[in-house]
């Protein structure tokens, strides 16, 4: 009897073991089947994505360039943010503090509490990573932000205003030299951007209207006296310090045009300021145009066209200039950025034009963190996306550029 019971228990244990093994095998097969189905699904989606992007290569290229542009932009912003914030002291944050007011003394516990509250109101508290992430969010235009501006800050606490929805937020003014303290930086930039844009755009147009024909003239007369004079003249202009060129035009306006040298006084004064920027932009345009045209003139297809007996005017305007022109036009967005955020700075300072330069110069000298960051952020946005526009212009206008290799998966 006992042997029979032991035998039954042994058989039951064996059956349980077999059932467990079978269940594990079944579960393993199910997991394997799920993984195989998931792998097949991803492969199918990826194939459809590749087929779609091969049909619209320009869209694929644009998406990649935009993603890379944002990555570059955010890295640049983070790097500049770290440099500026690390050099920021408490006095720069407390520019609106009345140092004659008792009983708060600089360095005391109430002062430290006041500084802490002020940094909290400005978003400068917490870890550096947290601050960078907040600033990234604020300058990302397609994410709505609920912003509460501080109405009053003291050692007791912060009085907040009503929340406002903003799509692009650059922070608040910290120093009265740049405007009203705790006033939005972007509101001041909106007033200054049209002035800088007016100077920059007109200067770019003038520089291209005169620079491209001069570059073509030099290329057509390669290594001849005309080419040598043009090349040496514009090399001298490039090597001349910008301050000297601008000061010469500024003094001409004062001495010969009876101008006070202040922007907006009359059309002559404004015109001289724009011409000064155009002269700074023109030398690279002339030299690049000359180089591009000479490169195309020495191409095999030009020699083939000449061997067929085609006229020199037809070859130049239909073949040479069209292909060189694509590379010239591609540079326009970049030149515009240089004129807006580079060349125009000195001109605006000499002619006292109320453009963007006043904020970057004053912002750096007063350690106004959000003014400097705002200027650099705007210039980085415009610079990165102007590079994207230039590449898209090249792709659209030059049929030799291929975006898809039509791979078969």
UniProtKB/TrEMBL annotation:
UniProt keyword Isomerase, yes or no: no
Subcellular location: Cell membrane
Superkingdom of the organism of origin: Bacteria
Keyword Transport found: yes
Biological process, per Gene Ontology: transmembrane transport
Chain segments annotated as transmembrane: 66-88, 195-218, 230-256, 268-287, 331-352, 372-397
Gene Ontology CC terms, in alphabetical order: plasma membrane
Record key words, sorted: Cell membrane, Membrane, Transmembrane, Transmembrane helix, Transport
Domain ABC transmembrane type-1: 193-394
Membrane topology: Multi-pass membrane protein
Family indicated by similarity: Belongs to the binding-protein-dependent transport system permease family.
Name the UniProt record assigns to this protein: Oligopeptide ABC transporter permease
Species annotation: Spiroplasma helicoides
Name of the gene: oppB
């Amino acid at each position: 009897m006992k042997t029979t019971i032991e035998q039954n228990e042994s058989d039951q244990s064996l059956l349980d073991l077999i059932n467990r093994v079978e269940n594990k095998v079944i579960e393993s097969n199910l997991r394997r089947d799920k993984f195989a189905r998931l792998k097949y699904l991803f492969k199918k989606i990826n194939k459809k994505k590749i087929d779609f992007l091969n049909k619209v290569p320009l869209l694929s290229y644009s998406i990649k360039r935009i993603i890379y542009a944002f990555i570059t932009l955010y890295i640049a912003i983070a790097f500049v943010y770290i440099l500026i914030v690390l050099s920021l002291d408490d006095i720069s944050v407390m520019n609106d503090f009345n140092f004659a007011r008792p009983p708060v003394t600089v360095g005391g516990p109430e002062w430290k509490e006041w500084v802490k509250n002020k940094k909290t109101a400005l978003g400068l508290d917490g870890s550096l990573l947290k601050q960078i992430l907040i600033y990234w969010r604020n300058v990302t235009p397609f994410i709505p932000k609920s912003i509460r501006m501080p109405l009053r800050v003291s050692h007791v606490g912060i009085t907040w205003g009503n929340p406002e929805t903003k799509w692009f937020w650059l922070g608040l003014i910290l120093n009265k030299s740049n405007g009203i303290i705790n006033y939005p930086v972007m509101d001041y930039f909106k007033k200054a951007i049209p002035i800088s844009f007016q100077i920059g755009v007109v200067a770019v147009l003038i520089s291209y209207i005169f620079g491209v024909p001069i570059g073509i003239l030099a290329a057509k007369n390669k290594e001849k006296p005309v080419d040598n004079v043009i090349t040496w003249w514009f090399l001298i202009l490039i090597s001349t310090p910008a301050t000297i060129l601008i000061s010469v035009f500024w003094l001409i306006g004062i001495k010969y045009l009876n101008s006070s040298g202040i922007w907006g006084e009359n059309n002559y004064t404004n015109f001289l300021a724009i011409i000064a920027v155009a002269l700074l932009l023109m030398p690279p345009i002339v030299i690049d145009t000359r180089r591009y045209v000479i490169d195309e003139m020495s191409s095999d297809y030009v020699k083939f066209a000449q061997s067929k007996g085609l006229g020199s005017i037809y070859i130049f305007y239909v073949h040479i200039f069209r292909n060189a022109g694509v590379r010239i036009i591609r540079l326009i967005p970049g030149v515009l950025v240089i004129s807006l955020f580079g060349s125009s700075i000195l001109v605006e300072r000499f002619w006292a034009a109320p453009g963007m330069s006043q904020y970057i110069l004053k912002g750096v000298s007063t350690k106004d963190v959000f003014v400097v960051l705002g200027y650099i952020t705007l210039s980085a946005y415009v610079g990165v996306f102007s590079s994207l526009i230039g590449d898209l212009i090249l792709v659209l206008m030059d049929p030799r550029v291929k975006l898809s290799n039509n791979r078969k998966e």
